[in-house]
Amino acid sequence: MLDYFTIIFVVDLNYIFAIMNMILIRKAKADDMVSVLDLIKELAEFEREPKSVTIGVNDLVNDGFCNNPKFKCLVAEIKSKVVGMALFYGRYSTWKGRTLHLEDLIVKKAFRGKGIGKKLYKKFIEIAKKESVMRAEWVALDWNVNAIKFYKNSGAKVLSDWKTIQIDKKSINNYLIKK
Predict the structure, then answer these.
(1) What are phi and psi of 129, to 5 degrees?
(2) How far apart are CA 67 and CA 159, in angstroms?
(3) What does the buried/exposed string (b/e) look like for 18-52 if buried means 16 or more CB atoms within 10 Å of the residue's CB?
(4) What's the pLDDT tens digit per position in 12-46?
(5) CB within 8 A of 162, min separation 6: which ones?
(6) Which residues pair with 27 in a beta bridge?
(7) Domain limits of the chain?
């Protein structure tokens, strides 16, 4: 005889199985960029930088769907609604050769914990293998322990002896006008 908790557990497993089978991971289209921008803004909010997003839909469309695209993007879709994305692009390592850089991987808050991020990540890794890159790389905030744990468990190495260095447009201009 099944008790109440066993029934709930079976129902929860069935729900998870049903959700997993409804997730479609596909190459993004220009029409998806409104949803992608919403996800970028949600990620900026999560990363405590809500005012840092300055690009718009037109930037994403022009940069990602031109003759020389600056990035590739995967989207996760449930019932024709974009609920996650992974945006990445090629780089070149002077030590290793061709690499892929995963700029962002985000799943809408309401859909987290359902394996969608894992499916996006797996598809990104499959693309890295298909493109025969020597490595894939990305950064994670040091306080995002769930992401770091997930990536470590996937076999990725977290480098603690390297620092991310950036120079923004204003600083580029200031540097170049110095004598």
Answers:
(1) -65, -45
(2) 35
(3) eeeeebebeebeeebbebbbebbebbbeeeeeeee
(4) 554 554 555 699 999 999 999 999 999 999 999 99
(5) none
(6) 74
(7) 24-177
pTM for the whole thing? 0.85
Sorted by sequence, the CB contacts under 8 Å of residue 105 that are 6+ apart come out as 84, 85, 86, 87, 117, 120, 121, 124, 138
Residues taking part in catalysis: 151
Half-sphere exposure (CA, 13 Å, Cβ side) for 123? 22
What is the number of residues in the chain? 179
- Could you name the CATH architecture of 24-177? 3-Layer(aba) Sandwich (3.40)
Instruction: Write out the two tokens for 9.
Output: 């557990």
Amino acid identity for residue 110 in this structure:
A
Instruction: Tell me how far apart the alpha carbons of residues 16 and 34 are, in angstroms, rounded to a whole number.
Output: 28
